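Example record

The entry below shows one chain as it appears in the dataset: sequence first, then structure tokens.
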Amino acid sequence: MNDTGDNCHACGTPLIPDAAYCHRCGSPALLPAVDVAPSAPPEAEDLHQPSIAPGTLWSTPASGGGGFGTRPASGSPPAPGVPPSGGGAAPGGAYPPPPSPPPPPTPALPSPGAPDDGLARALGGGYTIQMGEWLSRGWSVFTREGGLFLAFSAIGWACWMVTCVFLHLAWPVLLLAMPFLSAGFMTAALVARRGERLQFSDFWLPFQDFLPLLLANLVAWALLFAGLCTCGAVTIYLWVAYQFAYLLILDRRMDFWDALECSRKASTKQWFGIFAFSLLLLLINFAGVLMCGLGIIVTFPLTVCALVEAYADIFGVRGGLSGGRAPATAVPAPPPAV
């Protein structure tokens, strides 16, 4: 991806090593080199075509000879810059169309075995806690595509109410559906923060990672319940430490256990700062629940967007979303014509 010490071409922020996108503005980290095709050599001039003096009338040569200097009975002078028929033209007098420009290069997904300096930086604790900035940037991402975020949140809230009121299956739904609801918002936030146009189908991309997300959720819940034997100390520790597990699965294509462990190790380096941020997000959602339960439709996607911004600052966005969402590349504007 990018080398250590590079700055974002859009905002000038020092980039996280190996990040595909700027953690502050979401712009692509790399500008591809623009290959300028050499100009095609001019076509060989037809030696048999006589030159025409300025002001001389043009006439199409008739079969059998003669033709220059007399006005034809029908026809018109050729347009400026268009060679006459018969001089280097294709059969039938039609010139072939100009060659189409080469397609832009297709960005490749990060290789699973490639070094990940951003992850190593996070595991070493080389990041700072910026709760205010994470909330501010999360609010910007949320309001950029607020209609789709609210629509997906309303669908999740309606399904939750149906299962609780009519089916009495609150806990099974929480264990099975919650990771995909959260991962759907995370995927949408990762796409929206790039400046790309969000589509409603982007919320459903995490279903392609059904198994690792489900296993991460079940293992995390099992460990959280087991931690209750320590008067809740281990439960609180793991609840904070596993905040970024889903994002590591979605963005870095990790297995469920590797994602849980990497999230835990990175969060432990500055656990109290991550705890304060996680508690703040929890309180925001709790305030949404107090507003007749409908406020959660707004607060939940907002807090997920803020969590994604925290992930971008701590780990760096790798750009490995499934479903064809490869890292985009920024194409510089062509130089102005002189």
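Notes for this example: Residues 129-314 form one domain. The CA atoms of residues 146 and 321 lie 21 Å apart.
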